[in-house]
Amino acid sequence: MAMQTGSGLLRQQDWPDAVEVLNEHGRSDIVLLCEHASNHMPAEYRQLGLDAGHLQRHIAWDIGAAEVTRLLSARLDAPAFLSGYSRLLIDLNRPLDAPSSIPVLSEDTDIPGNVGIDAAERERRAKIMFSPFHERVAAHLDQRVAAGRPTRILTIHSFTPVFLGAARPWHAGVLHAHAADLAKAILSGLRTDAALNVAANVPYVISRDADYAVPVHGDDRGIPAVLVEIRQDLLANRAGIEEWANRLAAALPAHETETVS
């Protein structure tokens, strides 16, 4: 086996794979996606001109979402696909032609390193960060179809308690377009805890102009697909992350598994 050189290891760490795959052969019919799992930026981008503190904010990633996804993957025995780069470089849950794909303004923060970038840089980011993630997800879904495996998609996100000065009262939202039955079932499961404020299509709605995973991997294929949003202050520590992973695992309607011959 060839030895990994120091410079090669550093480059690998600076330019990780676009997608981290967990438990690809898991037996659950649930496929987990986490498009905003990472706040990583290669050094050459110089934090897009932002102070380091901004990379810890929601504008750079969905705080807590990756950890919830990892725990759900284990609890459900489900495959999971997690992003390797910050959404500020390119947002994996936006169509490539959407203005927010490579944002010049995120919430109330200007993103200097995204201003005026040319078509070649846009194409480079898409080739390195966006396309490999979605191609890997699509290949996995193709394999499941070919094997006759039932599939439901659950994409895990988190949202800020306050957005541009407006407080958000919900603890979680379940966003859907075509998969209303799946969303309703998950909400019904979550509402067994009467203290929770959960609702459909909050704090956002699914739109083909502003979303990618649910419309493309789910609705276009006829696969039930929902996006779960959890309020970030509820994921501020390990106890909260575990609580929400357990809640979601319990709220999902009974999932089917492969028949073992």
Describe what is shown at a glance.
The chain has six helices and eleven strands.
What can you tell me about this protein's structure?
The chain has 261 residues and is of the alpha/beta class. The chain is built from six helices and eleven strands. The protein has helices at 6-14, 65-76, 119-146, 180-190, 213-218, 238-251; strands at residues 19-22, 30-34, 80-83, 105-106, 109-110, 152-159, 162-163, 166-167, 172-176, 198-200, 225-231. It has a seven-stranded mixed beta sheet with strand order 1-3-2-6-11-9-10. The protein has a two-stranded antiparallel ribbon with strand order 4-5. It has a two-stranded antiparallel sheet with strand order 7-8. The radius of gyration is 18 Å and the shape is globular.
